[in-house]
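Hey, can you fold this one?
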Amino acid sequence: MLTLKNDYLTVKINPLGAELTSVVDNETQLEYMWQADKAYWGRHAPILFPIVGRLQDNQYRLGETTYYMTQHGFARDREFTVIDQTPTQVTLELTADDQSRALFPADFTLTVTFELIDHQLRFSADVFNPATTTLPFSIGAHPGFNVPLGDALADFTDYQVTVSPKKTYQRVPLVGPYSDSQHTEPLDLTQPLGLDHGLFAHDAQVLTLDSETAVMLSTPTNDHGVALTTTAPYLGIWSPYPKQAPFVCLEPWWGLADDVQATGELTTKVAIHHLAAQQHFQAAYQVTYF
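Sure. Predicted structure:
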């Protein structure tokens, strides 16, 4: 396990999946991150690559060949290599190999950096295409935060998610695990969204974003919470249902699950990115813990 620490926070990252597993307040010992209780969800904050969400029948076509890949891709289950580390920053890397090419026949280098600055943890990902052909991919993050935070007597429904800018967003409905991107619906977020387990009866709430967006998880009952900022084009808000899970995920996505009308061809998948040869793609988000 890799550790970052400053005067305010101690952060732990597992090289397996380059997964953030713990953020603890040094003074109060408050743990902010979901601790992967398998009774609810056995992960903390997986990196989603080279797809976000689920493929129809867990398969896709590239050229004339059909490949199989499970939900959210394989990066979350691969060992990353540490290429640089200081007391407050670490950079890890995953490159294509025979194991990845069996699922995804493309060359890539995925480099992720965690940087701890005061009360904020910054995450950045760089996707590089070393090949001579275009790289189709999606990427996302899936951090889970404990609810309640710092108050054992508080309830899930005491918490709210505040999205800024405050406005009406377009929500991408999910039909089962698949996106219905042709039938987006308005979601009024001019006021905070109160958490309730029933909110996730049809899976995640998926918002379409068009500018830098701040998402704050907080409660009026105490002063603890998290505030996530990102320029991602989509944000997933999720907690498992019907389980009464004591956490919620705030998920910046640069991609979507297969559309209900997906053809299976990866190059025409909804919200897929096409990275030209020898080019880089950057994705980032920051979380302030309070």
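The longest helix spans residues 98-101. Let me know if you want another pass with a different chain boundary.
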